[in-house]
Every structure is written in C-alpha cells, then in structure tokens.
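Each field is set out as follows.
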Amino acid sequence: MTTLVAVLALAAGGVLLVAGLRGVASPAAALGAVALQLAGTGLLWVAVPRPDVAAALAFLLASAAVAAAGRRRRLVGFAALAGLLAAALAVSLAGARGGLGAPRLGEALFSSRHGLLFWNPAAWIGVAGLVRLARRERTLAFALAGGLLAAVAVLSGVPAGASGPAAARRFAPLLPLLAPGMAAALDGLAGQAARAPGRLLAAAAALLVAWNLLFMEQYRTGEVPRDSTVSF
C-alpha cells in the first residue's frame, strides 16, 4: 500500500509539472523535463526500492507550486509557490529521521555519499537552464532560484542517515524547482541542434573524450582498482 501511494503521488506530480511547464516551454521539452526528473535523479527511490510516502507527497506539493507559478506568473502564482513549498518542506522534515541541525551546504550539494548534485546528475541541467530561463522569464527564474536556495539551506540541516540515492530522498521537494530550468535547457538544445548540429555533436564528443581521459587517469593513479574481470 505504501508503494502504491508513493507511486501515485509521483505520477500526480509529474502530470502537474507537464501542465505547468507548457507555459514556459514547448510540450516536448515539458515531457522531457519530467522524464529527466524521473530518470536522471534518485526520485524513483522514494517509490519502488524504499517507499517513502512523506518524500513522495513533498514532491507532489512542490510540483503543484511550480505548476501554479509557471502557468500564472503573477502574485497568486508566486504566493502559491511560497506556500506550497513551505508545506512540502514541512512534510519532508516530518518524514525525516533525526532533528534539524546546523546547515552543511557544501556536503548537502556535493558529497559523494548523499549530495544533491552528485546523486541527481540531471540537477546540473536544471541549474544551467535557470540561467537561460532568466533571459525571458526573469521573475519566475528568480523566484525558483530563491526557493531553491532557501530549501537547500533548510534541508542541508537534515541528517542524511545513509549514503546513496536513499539518503538523497530528503531533497525530493527541491527537484520540481529545477524542472523549468530543465525544460528551458532542452528547448535551447533543440534550437541549437536545428541551427548548428555540428557544434552540438562536437561539444558532446569533446565531453566524452574528456570523461574517458579522466577515467584513465584515475586508473593510472590507482584510484580505480586494477582487478580482473568482474563476475556478474
């Protein structure tokens, strides 16, 4: 039953995000952003491997807030963003184990054990996309960035209690705030691919080459174990 409630909450949040993002991005980018939320973050961990109803409901409330702000982009929308985000944080904190301690921003964002940006690689796309979104939707972008910073400051004081995606579930209310940035980034990539596909392919190839070189450097220095074939 717990798993079903968590899955339904995530599904409802995704539907709300798609509806809200259509006010700031193309329908394809809106769907792509929601797909990134599910596939490029640890969000599914709050539903299937380790159901967490509090985290799923917090995601739903934050998605409703972003949808209201994205579609209205007026005072009522931003009031809904603030109110529902506060409610989402309250739900997330109520479901967290341990009390609220001193903020540890660097660890909360970049820790390899349970950092937001480490265990949710798609979050980088959302952060970069907020910069692009600010060029045409300045008020919305600043409202989302402000809410994101405030939420990170609060949730960074919540003890992780574990490592890996299961520990990052306390950041479920933050992920919808990155969805408009993800959609804006996807729209920008689509436009760049239409105008100059060669540049996009060259940038992707350079990124893969750099990734491989860094990996080989880790192997050379012994940071990656030089073991035999891994048995499955």
Summary: The chain has ten helices and no strands. The radius of gyration is 19 Å. Residues 197-221 form the longest helix (25 residues).
